[in-house]
């Protein structure tokens, strides 16, 4: 599949100064990084907290097509794993991961790469893309009567699209669940279980794993955390006002400036059960919610937003890889933190209006600080497994955003240990379910 080229220079009016024209390079395409070459050196594999198989090279390329699970001679696959790509991407982003997951987790899994939001379709808004993904998943599930369980693995913007889609697909039908994401902390999680994690179905199936890789769960703000500006300082300063021009509705939603001033932005509504949908209940229905975050060198999505952490919670990251999972440096289970949920106070309304109508560094940062805290309060009502990834020892560490899901087998192979960790996590949950049913 040919790579998309960067968009040409756009001549556009500055949204707040009509007396002059502003010439801005859009620099939209995340796939720009694919054009650079390089291999990676071996990382350090001396962690003590996790044991596992070492990542191996992909054996069967799939060229972006989904791999149908065939099961054994008597059984069709009963567990679908939906792979969801990020902004301006396609199913080819999952070529390596698809084949590697299929090889590692067995024939009871159907590995399916979503194709309903390729390339510029990701510009139409997280909600629009989420509805398309939900429709696509329902069509696949209807055709495979053997399916009983469902999991998602999503990269970058795809994680937000998936969070919207699962709310569309959610139904509150209860089922028995006595296994937790982290066996070592199971009793703690169960004792602190909230009203948002009491079960339910996604697309009529039992939800098992919800996994995101470098997803901006808190939106985007600050140096090196903008998903389409490639770390260019002048564009970062102008980011909020130009975002809607560059990537449509998706841009304003990522910057939390979508909608009227008195209405909460979409990402805040997605941190609760809002009038739109039961976003938090849908997330809580999964047995395990896991977020992989790059601790550094990711100039698309920063550590704070991808790991759902406050700035004060970002300590010095470990540098040594866990055994068998190169560049995976830490795994932490964060139990639920009960609260009354996110709010959209009057000061937020005022700050949002200022960020929309007269954006500058000061009022935009102030608004995002208010919103980030509220989104964190909402999402922390659920337990999360947080996996930190560090490509500091990779030959091309600045490829971190694409390394984490091995966008291209040859250019981004530093991330094979991450995919191995994802595969073993999926397999572990499958084993827990099997053990519980015996």
From TrEMBL:
Pfam families attached to this UniProt entry: DUF676 (PF05057)
Transport as UniProt keyword: no
Signal peptide span: 1-38
Top-level taxon of the source organism: Eukaryota
InterPro entries according to UniProt: AB_hydrolase_fold (IPR029058), DUF676_lipase-like (IPR007751), Lipase-like (IPR044294)
UniProt keywords, alphabetically: Signal
Domain annotation DUF676: ranges: 75-305
Record's protein name: DUF676 domain-containing protein
Organism, scientific name: Lupinus angustifolius (Narrow-leaved blue lupine)
């Amino acid at each position: 599949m040919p790579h998309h080229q960067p968009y040409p220079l756009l001549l556009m009016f500055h949204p707040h100064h009509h007396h002059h024209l502003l010439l801005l390079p859009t620099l939209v395409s995340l796939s720009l990084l694919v054009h650079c070459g390089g291999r990676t050196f071996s990382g350090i594999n001396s962690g003590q907290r996790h044991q596992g198989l070492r990542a191996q090279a992909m054996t069967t390329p799939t060229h972006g097509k989904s791999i149908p699970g065939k099961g054994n001679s008597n059984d069709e696959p009963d567990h679908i794993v939906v792979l969801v790509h990020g902004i301006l991407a396609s199913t080819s982003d999952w070529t390596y991961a698809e084949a590697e997951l299929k090889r590692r987790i067995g024939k009871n899994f159907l590995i399916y790469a979503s194709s309903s939001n390729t390339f510029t379709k990701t510009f139409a808004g997280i909600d629009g893309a989420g509805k398309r993904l939900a429709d696509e998943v329902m069509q696949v599930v209807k055709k495979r009567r053997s399916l009983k369980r469902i999991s998602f693995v999503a990269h970058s913007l795809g994680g937000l699209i998936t969070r919207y889609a699962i709310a569309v697909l959610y139904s509150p039908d209860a089922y028995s669940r006595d296994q937790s994401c982290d066996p070592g902390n199971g009793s703690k999680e169960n004792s602190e279980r909230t009203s948002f994690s009491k079960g339910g179905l996604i697309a009529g199936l039992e939800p098992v794993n919800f996994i995101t890789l470098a997803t901006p769960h808190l939106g985007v703000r600050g140096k090196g955390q903008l998903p389409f500006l490639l770390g260019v300082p002048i564009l970062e300063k102008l980011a909020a006002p130009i975002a809607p021009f560059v990537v449509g509705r998706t841009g304003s939603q990522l910057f939390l400036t979508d909608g009227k001033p008195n209405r909460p932005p979409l990402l805040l509504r997605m941190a609760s059960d809002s009038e739109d949908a039961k976003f938090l209940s849908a997330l809580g229905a999964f047995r395990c919610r896991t977020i992989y975050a790059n601790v550094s060198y990711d100039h698309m999505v920063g550590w704070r937003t991808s790991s759902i952490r406050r700035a004060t919670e970002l300590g010095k990251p470990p540098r040594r890889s866990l055994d068998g999972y190169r560049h995976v440096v830490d795994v932490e289970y964060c139990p639920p933190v009960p609260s009354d949920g996110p709010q959209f106070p009057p000061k937020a309304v005022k700050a949002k209006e200022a960020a929309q109508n007269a954006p500058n560094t000061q009022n935009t940062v102030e608004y995002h600080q208010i919103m980030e805290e509220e989104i964190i309060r909402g999402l922390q009502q659920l337990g999360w497994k947080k996996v930190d990834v560090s490509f500091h020892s990779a030959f091309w560490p600045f490829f971190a955003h694409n390394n984490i899901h091995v966008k291209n087998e040859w250019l981004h192979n530093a991330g094979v240990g991450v995919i191995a960790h994802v595969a073993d996590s999926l397999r572990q949950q499958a084993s827990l379910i099997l053990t519980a049913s015996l």
